[in-house]
Each structure stands twice: as structure tokens, then as C-alpha cells.
Amino acid sequence: MKGKGGFKGGKGKAGRHFQRNDNDQRGMAGNALVNIPPEKRSSHPWINSQIIQASKEANPIQRILAVVEVCIWDMNLVNLSTSLHRLAKLSVTHPNSDAQLRQSPIMSSLLAGIAQAFSSVDKDISLPQSLSNITWSLATLRITDFRVLELAGSLAVLNMKDFKAFELASLLWSFAKLGTADSLAAVVGPLFRAATGRLIACVSGAGFRSLATAAWAFATARQASQRLFRAISREVQTCLPTANSQELANVIWAYGTVGHRDDQLFTNIAEESIPRLEEFKTQELSNTFWGMASNDFYHEGFFVKALLLTRGMPLQPQHVANILWAAARLQRKHPVARSAVLEMIPGCLSSLAYYKPQEVASTAHAIAKIFSREVDSSNFPPEQPHTPLQVASFFSAISPWCQENVANFSDQSLANVMSSFGMLDLPLSASLATALE
Hints:
Layout: H1 31-34, H2 38-41, H3 44-54, H4 60-71, H5 77-93, H6 97-103, H7 105-119, H8 127-141, H9 146-158, H10 165-177, H11 185-201, H12 208-220, H13 226-236, H14 245-258, H15 263-273, H16 282-294, H17 300-309, H18 317-331, H19 335-350, H20 357-371, H21 389-404, H22 411-423, H23 430-436
Helix pairs in contact: 3-4, 3-5, 4-5, 5-7, 5-8, 7-9, 8-9, 8-10, 9-11, 10-11, 10-12, 11-13, 12-13, 12-14, 14-16, 16-18, 18-19, 18-20, 19-21, 20-21, 20-22, 21-23
């Protein structure tokens, strides 16, 4: 590994970014650090101990920044990685600190130092942990530093054989979370291709969490490998009880997103989830429903219990749209689906102002399918000859809303709105009909 030392001297080193002045460090660091002899301050283990100690003190974020400000000239990659990782972890429990960190000049110096350190290394068995921690930190802080990410992606490919499954899953999650599939396509493509082979090689014993994270990352970054998804499916089914609700939902969502149908996997996850559905957050339940419906997978027990549970959940517009779309696609004439719609409509009407046009169109289309009088192949009793009052009220309320927002609808959403009124034999108001033309 090149460049194991700090930023001492030499052309192209950190001196180009940082002006070292031991007499001008008291502003944030205080006397405790400034009075340490320079030879001790240049010790990498000592620097790391100061970073860790600072994270345990009052005002830990400011204390870590103080250590960085004083010691950055002498930091190696481990020190830099530890600093950024501790700051990112602390930001999760300190509201609004991520925004402050993104604006901090010390953070800018820290990222410049990381980029320089990355530029001076190539292969090293310890590098994957630093790459994983640094990219995770950037994603957690919502910092898209293209130079750092480009170097991290390239170094990850170069050191791929040394990654553990959890390190690689975290790194892939970070690139996907930051939405770099298009902006860093030249890096993301090779990275995910190289990661496919590595994950398949170490899938055995990788654990549900790592594999669920990897599957989510591949789906989000639109880099799915069917070969990898088959390998993940086989392995996660051996450790289902170890998964939490978010991890179960992420696997179903990922497989639904990439269109990889695996009925055995979905059946096992559905049966694992049913007794634990009360643990699912609204977003997790919505994603699971959506993923199952995207792959046309229907499980009666999951379908019924999940819809019953939605009655007591605080549903956001996207949740309503996803859940009803899934119900209408999977078993639109199920009595529980009809009951769920009637339960959701009051909440929809009270929060209509917060809906997006696509969500209104999707929700309306699902409701129309569920309450239309069309005949399907199910054995459920036919719908009543008259549209329920709640359903009629919903369509009456969205009519002026659609007219007011018609310019924001896509052509497909407009078509869905029009067909929804038609499926229920509800008249379009003259003004809405004119707006939709």
C-alpha cells in the first residue's frame, strides 16, 4: 500500500490544501491539543485515540472537527476514515447536524484529504473497510463528492477480492443511496459488475442483512444480475428468522423492482412475515405489498392480514397508492380489499392537498377496479349494483382537484383518471371533461 504515512511534505501532498500553523489552532481545538508536542501529534494511533475520545465528550461533533483541524496534516487514511465515520454516526442522533457538516470548511478539508489519500494507494488488504466506512458516511451525510466517490469506486474494483460481504454491501448501498447510477455511470457499472462475482463467491454465511442490503442496492442502481439474485435467494432462505421487518421488505421490494420472480422465496418470506406484521412500519408494509404485486405473487394469509393492519396505520399518499394498486392487481374483488378502500377513503379526502397527480390517478384507478362491476375469475361475491357512497364521494372530491392540476398529469395518469370514472359509470363533470381533452 502506498502512502501509509500522513500528509508530510512532498509535491502533490496535502500542503497544497492545508496551511499548517500551530499558533493558530486555538479557535476550536483549545489548549489541550495545541500544547501536545508535534512529534506526538504526528502519531497515527494517538490521533485515532483523540478522535474516539472526542466522540464521547460533550459537543462531540465540534470536538471531532477540532481534532481534524489541528491534526489533519498528519492524518493517514485510517485517521481520516475514522473522523468521517464518527461524524456521520453522530449526525444520525443530532438533528440538523448533517446540514451544518455539509457547510463546514473543516469537512471540505477532510474530504480533500481523503481524496488525496485515495490517490496515493492502490492495493491493500485493509483498504475495503476504509472504503466502506467512507462511502457509507458520505451517503448518511448526503454528500456527493464526485472525486472521492470516483476514487473509492475504482479502488473497490481493484481490491474486490478482499471485501467481506458486509463491507461490500455497505459500499454498494452508499452508491445507490446517493443516486450515482447516471452521474457516475463510468464508475458504478464496473463496480457493480465486479461486486456481482465477489458477492456470489462469499454469499454463503453472508447473513440476511448484508444480502438484503446488496439486493436493495442492485435494484436501486438498476444494475441487477439475475445470477446474483438467484444466489441471494438460496442463501437468505436459510436464515429468515434472523431478518427484521425492514430487511424482509427490502428483499421483496428489490426482487419486485428488478422483476425477478421467485415464488418459493416470496412464500417463505410471506409466511415468516405474517406473525410479525405488527412490527412492520408503514413504508415497509407498502414496499412489501408493492413488490409482491409487481411479481404477480399472491399469498392469501399475507394479503388479508396486511390489509386489515392498514386500518390503524398513518398512511401517506404514496402508501395508499402502492397498497391499493397492489390489492387491485392481486385480488381486486376480495371483500377485505373493498373494506380497506372504504376505511382509507376518509383519510385520502382529508389529505388530498398533499397528493401528487400520479398518486391520485393510481389511487382512483385502483378503487375503480376494486368496485367496478366487471366479472373476474375469483369466487368472491359480486359487487353491489350501486357504487358505495364513500367511493362516489371520493370521485366527486377529486374531480375539481384533477381539473385544477391537469397540467401536472402525465398522459398515462390522465388516461387512468378518465377510465376510473368510466369503470364505475360515474359522470365526468363538463369542466373536467373539457380539461382532460
